[in-house]
Amino acid sequence: MAEWGQRFKGVDLQSEGHMRLCEALEAAGLLFSFEMHICIPEGATGTRRTLDLLVISPHGLLNVEIDGARHNKTKRRDKDYNRDRLLSRHLRTLRFTHDAVLSDPQAVARIIQIELEQDRRSLFQQLNGL
Predict the structure, then answer these.
(1) 48: which strand partners?
(2) Confidence at residue 53, expressed as pLDDT on a 0 to 100 scale
(3) What's the number of CA atoms in the CB half-sphere (13 Å) around residue 16?
(4) Handedness of CA 32, 36, 39, 40 (dihedral sign)
(5) Which InterPro entries match (predicted)?
(6) Pick from 21, 25, 85, 93: CA 20 to 30 A from residue 100's CA?
């Protein structure tokens, strides 16, 4: 069970922030997956990682990470950087502090929507040679 005992759709989540952002994304009508295991191709073997949230649109994918206080420690920050570097070949990552998500999860959901809209415009421009 999650440290905070937070549940969304019957699944234990890492924190209240994770739960509140899931609720905000659902209310915004966004398609997403949470606590998702992925394999990042790396050399001869892949590296397994867990994404906080993967937000899905017809025009792109966004990895959304919610960083609590432990992410400020050097070892964890370095681990996050390395994972983001590996992921960057496949999808973008947006990071939000746990405090920002708790403060206004709807604003975080709007930022995610804006990022997905920018992906849509960029794809449209690429397809139309603009």
Answers:
(1) 39
(2) 92
(3) 6
(4) positive
(5) DUF559
(6) 85
Task: Provide φ and ψ at 46, rounded to 5°.
Answer: -90, 165
Residues in contact with 33: Cβ distance below 8 Å, sequence separation at least 6, in sequence order:
51, 53, 54, 56
Q: Which residue has the tokens 């937070």?
A: 6
* Number of residues that make up the chain: 130
Other residues' Cβ atoms within 10 Å of the Cβ of residue 113: 17
Q: What is the structure's pLDDT at 50?
A: 84
pTM summary value: 0.77
pLDDT in tens, 31-76: 998 888 888 777 656 677 888 999 998 878 899 999 876 656 666 6
Q: Where are the strands (E) in 6-58, listed by range? A: 6-8, 11-13, 31-42, 45-57
Range of lowest pLDDT (2-6, 31-35, 101-105): 2-6
pLDDT at residue 1 tops 50: no
3-class secondary-structure state, position 23: helix
